[in-house]
Amino acid sequence: MSKRLTTTKDARMRQLVTQEAAKIMAEEGISDYLVAKRKAAERLGAPDTRNLPTNREIQDALIDYQRLFQGEEQPVLVRRLREVAVEAMEFFARFRPRLVGSVLHGTATEHSDVNLHLFADSPEEVVLFLMDHQIPYEASERRFRFGLDSYETLPVYRFVAGDTVVDVAVFSTKGLREAPRSRIDGQPMDRAGVGAVRELLAAV
């Protein structure tokens, strides 16, 4: 097989994996890009392919897929989740909350959580706040990347508001100055305050 034909075949497979991974994320609620890529490649009969798309390529394909196949219901879902986000951000106002992730980007699915970053002198402040308001929660940890190669494991608390899971990661107060890196493109993560989220709601 000529090099040109091989290159064309590889490019086609990359495109197919991109589209299938976007579909998997939109319909099955998988938020991990690598998992979606591997699952897509396996479904396409190419589990060992190394020509995988970037996370940004899948993100762009996900936006296209949602616009084409979920054009009516998906914007309604995003709006509802942003409304929940505003309520949660008002509740956590003392911790200067920021909205991140798929609800902010507008790519949320019915499986998406509302993801917030909170900022406190210590995680215990957030725990006591939840306990004072008698809100049951689950505690875990999540690893975030800062800069080129610096990682930090931070506490995460999850609770249910109505029928929506709210996921809050607690940073130190210094965390407001530097956002962790995005899994999509490695750039500082997009974060929005409650005023910006209200503007998104008003613009629709």
* CATH domain fold name of the largest domain: Beta Polymerase, domain 2
CATH architecture of the largest domain: 2-Layer Sandwich
Number of domains in the coordinates? 2
Going by helix content, strand content and strand pairing, the class is: alpha+beta
- CATH class of the largest domain, named Alpha Beta
* Helix count, DSSP H or I runs of 4 or more residues: 7
Which range does the strand content fall in?
Answer: 15-25%
Ranges where pLDDT stays below 50 over 5 or more residues in a row are none
Helical content, roughly?
Answer: 40-55%
Walk across the major sheet and give the strand order.
1-2-5-4-3
CATH superfamily of the largest domain: Beta Polymerase, domain 2
Largest β-sheet summary: 5 strands, mixed
How many distinct beta strands? Answer: 5
Run of helices and strands? HHHHEHEHEEEH
Terminal residue distance: 52 Å
Cα radius of gyration in angstroms: 19 Å
Give the CA-based shape.
globular
As an assembly, this protein is: single chain
The averaged pLDDT comes out at 93
Quickly list its features.
204 residues, 7 helices, alpha+beta, single chain, 5 strands, Beta Polymerase, domain 2, 2 domains, globular, five-stranded mixed sheet, 47% helix
